[in-house]
Amino acid sequence: MLFQFVAAQEKYEPNWESIDTRPVAPWFEDAKFGIFIHWGPYSVPAWSPKGTYAEWYQYWMQNKTLSGNGKFTGKEVYNHHVETYGADFSYYDFGKMFTAKSYNADKWAKLFEDAGAKYMIITSKHHDGFTLWPSETANKSWGFNWNAKDLGAKRDLLKELELAVKKTDVKFGTYYSFLEWFNPIYIKDKEKFAVEHAKPQFQELVENYKPDLIWSDGDWGMSPEQWRSPQLLTWLFNESSIGDSVVINDRWGDGTRFNHAGYYTSEYGSELDGSKPWEECRGLGFSFGYNKNEDAWDYASERTLIYLLLNVVSHGGNLLLDIGPDADGNIPPIMQDRLLAMGEWLNVNGDAIYGTRKWKHASQWSEKGIKNWKPEGVHYMPNNVIIKQTIDPEPGYAVREIFFTKKGEDVFAIVPKWPKDTLEIRDIKVSKNTEITLVGTDIKIDFEQKGKDIILNIPCLSPEELPCKYAYAFKISQ
């Protein structure tokens, strides 16, 4: 259930001891599934080698460097840019080409709803400094117009999305990058940039768009004290119009990630211990921004996405799944299809996902084999690792047979394959009042306690009789 949250403490002080006492709103832990959107001038070239982030186009191009999954010379993006646009074509010229001519915020919002997402987060400003709203701060510090209202689209794209999303039950979130790679003030004096640019622009974003969630990023390279993050957060909590309700993440300067502020954020990781509210972000493909180089097989399959969700939620986290619209504002059909498939599965199995918490075990592994197969030599963990850990193991490796979640006294056992005849769930005690049902149906499952385990007698169902595809949830009501 999503409801209004009011922070317990009236006033916070600008230090981590105080800030860290602020709880994360319960709606966030209940939500479990959110949609990330990377969209900006980098969506015009939409190009980077597979295994790298296309939204870093400007950085790759101007610094003649490249990193990610794979081996690179570093000049791939620079060479592509010169060959395609010419050596004199500036990255800033992409601002004029970022037209968003097909952008329809209401259609986006409906897609998020139909996907079963409970919140969304969009790059209001990425590391290139371009804002999706008419930021006076941006124009002033850059010395030229560098926002969607004054260039290309000639629209306040962020306000359109805010209004559309707030007509739904989906929470509205904004990503905000502290650093700006090539901002002249940032290059010359980073601490001056923090005070004269980042602070007023952050406040501008907060008061004009009132996000339910703020996803800070680009905080590396400076301490939170240099960024003035503790002071900014106490302003946010104590004085801003959203102080009682806003949710924040943990990226507020070197050393804060996984340590301070709001919920923890992993990126292509998937398995924090759940002791603190957390979220795993990853792309539907690999790149967060739209990348024309990615083919159909580079996008996670429907099955993979559902297993990724199960793995994250079973560990007590949320899955933040990224899409990259093109420069016209079209969400590519393959991305829409994947999101709608998630919504279809969640429509059946939402009881086992939304509002749940981590059980004593995240998953049950097969008894034989080595756990946690991972590929070697990769910087970011690929999406398909979860397939190898469930239904297509490498020789000698174990698989996750069951994912678990809990809600109150109820335990959900979610299997990635429909069991044949019986299902053994180890290390669980039931009572004489226990009832087990197949989620999405009225089917009751016969079972028996056998020592520390229970054995479920699985009915023989045809594919047409199964409530969904890919994964099946059994509700164990105590």
UniProtKB/TrEMBL annotation:
<comment type="function">
    <text>Alpha-L-fucosidase is responsible for hydrolyzing the alpha-1,6-linked fucose joined to the reducing-end N-acetylglucosamine of the carbohydrate moieties of glycoproteins.</text>
</comment>
<feature type="domain" description="Glycoside hydrolase family 29 N-terminal">
    <location>
        <begin position="7"/>
        <end position="351"/>
    </location>
</feature>
<dbReference type="InterPro" id="IPR016286">
    <property type="entry name" value="FUC_metazoa-typ"/>
</dbReference>
<protein>
    <recommendedName>
        <fullName>alpha-L-fucosidase</fullName>
        <ecNumber>3.2.1.51</ecNumber>
    </recommendedName>
</protein>
<dbReference type="Pfam" id="PF16757">
    <property type="entry name" value="Fucosidase_C"/>
</dbReference>
<dbReference type="InterPro" id="IPR017853">
    <property type="entry name" value="GH"/>
</dbReference>
<keyword id="KW-0326">Glycosidase</keyword>
<dbReference type="InterPro" id="IPR057739">
    <property type="entry name" value="Glyco_hydro_29_N"/>
</dbReference>
<feature type="domain" description="Alpha-L-fucosidase C-terminal">
    <location>
        <begin position="400"/>
        <end position="476"/>
    </location>
</feature>
<dbReference type="InterPro" id="IPR031919">
    <property type="entry name" value="Fucosidase_C"/>
</dbReference>
<dbReference type="Pfam" id="PF01120">
    <property type="entry name" value="Alpha_L_fucos"/>
</dbReference>
<keyword id="KW-0732">Signal</keyword>
<keyword id="KW-0378">Hydrolase</keyword>
<dbReference type="InterPro" id="IPR013780">
    <property type="entry name" value="Glyco_hydro_b"/>
</dbReference>
<comment type="similarity">
    <text>Belongs to the glycosyl hydrolase 29 family.</text>
</comment>
<dbReference type="InterPro" id="IPR000933">
    <property type="entry name" value="Glyco_hydro_29"/>
</dbReference>
